[in-house]
Every structure is written in structure tokens, then in C-alpha cells.
Amino acid sequence: MDFDLNEDQQLLAKTVADFCKTRSPVSRFRELRDADGRGWDAATWQQMGELGWLGVAFPEDVGGLEACFIEVALILEQLGKSLVPEPYLASVVLGGYALALAGDPAQRERWLAPMVEGETSLALAWAEAGARFDPTRVSCTATPSAGGFVLSGAKRFVLNGHAADQLIVSAMTPDGLALFVVDADAPKLTRTSLGLIDGQRGAHLQLEGVAVEADRRLAAAPAAEVLGRVLDYGAAGAVAEGLGVASAMLDLTTEYLGTREQFGVKIGSFQALQHRAVDMFIEVALLRSMSMEAMVRADEPGPERSAAVSAAKHQLGIGGQFVSRQSVQLHGGIGVTDEHDIGLYFKRMQALSTICGDATHHAQRYASAAGESVPISPAS
Description:
Its cofactor is FAD. By secondary structure, the chain is α+β, with helices and mostly antiparallel strands.
């Protein structure tokens, strides 16, 4: 398998990196986090659409570039390095892929094309209380009615659910699981905005008899199959963004070790701290290699995709968390303050490690595919 990036991919990564450094440094994330409202900027989102980043993997008939998930992962890695708050993972990877895979041409033109242009944003509402990363454990119902369906139930921790223009909601119909597009201002839909651990925002949804037309059901492919693929895309995307976060934390920490003085010398000269920095480097390198395989396999059908994604997501949960903890500890007291950027990266790593399945979930999924068993424990 060739992991070398081609010339176009290298140029894309550099373009996104330059954009993040000049237009969206970490200080911008802090400003938007502390301001009231959505937590991200609509003008920046539209600019990302104009640059083609929001549609890089989608068909040309909706304004996309028909690339593959590798390009999506390259964008996410650079966004992670600067903690860019715009909802790329939530809207493009989760919401966008759900529409691309389950929607017919008319539905994609109606709801996916505006998102690709940066005019709207999406959210995928799939998680429910007690579901434990299983998208098929759904208690939300869709009851047939004259000309459509009536949705009732609750969805939890919907990424970008507070700001999305359209919500893609999973619900159980009499003939099985289905996906529906619900407008954010639909009557009898309640969105409760949430402040998440990483400073970004999401929402709990309450649907109390929300009426939708029949053409809002996404039925071009089986919903359970679509959700399985979309959550693999989401997990692989979280790994790619987490790689950017871990790389930034490693850079910040090695820079700090080379400048902070104690006992009259740079603390980076202490052998014990050098060993810990090397351990961090090894974990980042391992995360990079596993992220690369996951982004290459993400578009493939079958168990190879799921195995690669689960292995990478487990590494994010174990190795990525190791890097984040070491970074805070090696920074000392300043590392646990909100004023230092390392704490912001630490919190984002906690969120990414859980999005679309934590380390234990993916270890069990990987082992199950191999016919083995993994006990549920913190060491999993």
C-alpha cells in the first residue's frame, strides 16, 4: 500500500495549514468559545465552502470534487492543529456523508449542495441514551401519517445540533430503521444547546410529534448500513483530527522543554524528561501510521475498513490520551490553566477519543471481528 501523498494532496494540506495559521489560530477558538452564540463563524464556514473543502469528497452534481476520504482526513488533521471550531467533522463527515449515501439525487441537490457551498450546515442525530455507540438501538419512532411521518423521541449529544440548518434523524418505522431530514425550525422540535468538554457546542434534541413529508425520508440505501459506514467515516475523521491535535501538543511540549529553565538549566536537558518526550513522539508516529491506513481504507466496503478504523480509533484513545496527559504533566502547573493552549488541546483530545466510539468500544469491535473477546476495563 502506497502511503505517499500525491502532488495535489500535498498542496491541499499546505493550503489548509496556511489558512489555519493566518485565519484561524488557537486564539480565535478561544474568542469564539467565550462569545455567546454558535461557537463558530458563518463567514469562515462559507469561505471554506468557496475553497472547495466542504465538498471535496462529494459528487460533482452537488458542487463537490469527487475526491476520496484521504483528502477529507488531510483537511481534518490541519484543522486539529489549530483547533478550528467550524463543524467540519459534524457537518461534512457525519451529516454530509449520511446525505450522500442515503439520499437520492433530488435530496442531495436540496440539502447537500447548499452545505457544500457553505450556505448551511448539517448535523447527524443518531445517539440516544443507553445506546452505547450502537446506531441501531433506537427508541425514536417515525409513525406513518397522511403524506409523511410523525417523529417522536429524543437524541443526545448531537454535534452541531445547536446550529445546524438541517438535522438528519434516525428513527424506527414499522418497516425498520430509517433516516429523515428535519429542519432546525420545525414545529415541536426542541433543541437544548450544550457546552461540551472541549469548549465546542452541541445539543440535545426532543421531538414531540414532529411532522415531516414523505420526501424527507432518505431511502436510497438501507439506513443501518448507511449509519455503519458514516460512523466509520466519523471515527476515521476523529482520528485524523486527533492526529493534528497530538502533533500540536508534541510540538508545544518539546518547545517548552527547550525553553523552560529550572535549577539554572533547560529542563529538556533532564534525561528522564527526554525519555518521556521520546515516548510521546513514538505514540504520535504510531497514531499517524494507523490514521493513514484508516483514511485509505475508509472508502472500502467490508471488514477491512472496519478493522482499520477500529484499530486507529483505539490508538487515538490510548496513544492520543497518553500524549495529552504527558503534555500537561511536562508543562507543570501552567498546563492545567485555561490561559495556556495546551489545556484546550487536552480537552479536544478527550472529545475526539469518544466521538463515534471510545477505545474500549473499538477494541471490542476489532476483537469481535477476529472471533476473540475483550473484557471491559480501563486497560482495554
